[in-house]
User: Fold these one by one.
Assistant:
Number 1:
Amino acid sequence: MSLFISQAHAQAGQPAAGGGELFQIAFLVGLFVLFYFIAIRPQRKRQKEHAEMVGALSKGDEVVTSSGILGRIKTLDDNYMVLTVADNVDLKFQRIHVHAVLPKGTLKSIGS
């Protein structure tokens, strides 16, 4: 009855080899291993380095926050720090928002 589609007939052939399922499993495991080394492992390394940097902060360090504010640490406690960003201007931040610790004297060389 079909005018444009010819009928397909199934061919009786040899049974398919059983390696297809094993290949798919090996492929998925390989993708996971590749994803681990490309994405997960470097991210964990960066998190560990950041946690060590935040733990090593001390009074007087010059830092840059994740929002780009530069300042000198005035006081520290377990979770927060107070930065002096200008004369008589102190801001309170969470310690985890420190992006980088600057070399001593950087604020004087940048500032006016």
Number 2:
Amino acid sequence: MLLQKICLATMLAFGGIATVQAADKMHDFNFKEAVDRAVADGTLDGSVKFYLAGTKSGGKVIQKGLVTNKKTNGFAKSAESACDHVLRSALIQFQNTAKANGANAVTNLVSFYKSNETRSTTTYQCAKGTAVAGVALKGDIVKF
């Protein structure tokens, strides 16, 4: 019984430390370079193009304001590596949704972490904590 109490106290103590250390730090990474890498290695098939807000407009909007919110294991990974991986998951979801709806682009993309919209014409935002990295994007699927 005493051993169980000691184990519980230890787990609670370390859990509290992990919570304090798990605060997300925001990172900005080059969006075009990340997309180009994902297309080059076959993660994305290239049939759907991705454009940050302010870089391309026009076409017929099929669905407006779609949101994807992806997380990945970031433990013992650099922010750049974990964020690149989780961005790919978000873009795959957008690619699949666009193709299923006859669209060939996702435009007006903005970072949307915790529902806070951040616009950039060059970068996306990624939150990286001790154990988890996350990317949230909002955009419109479009047929050009």
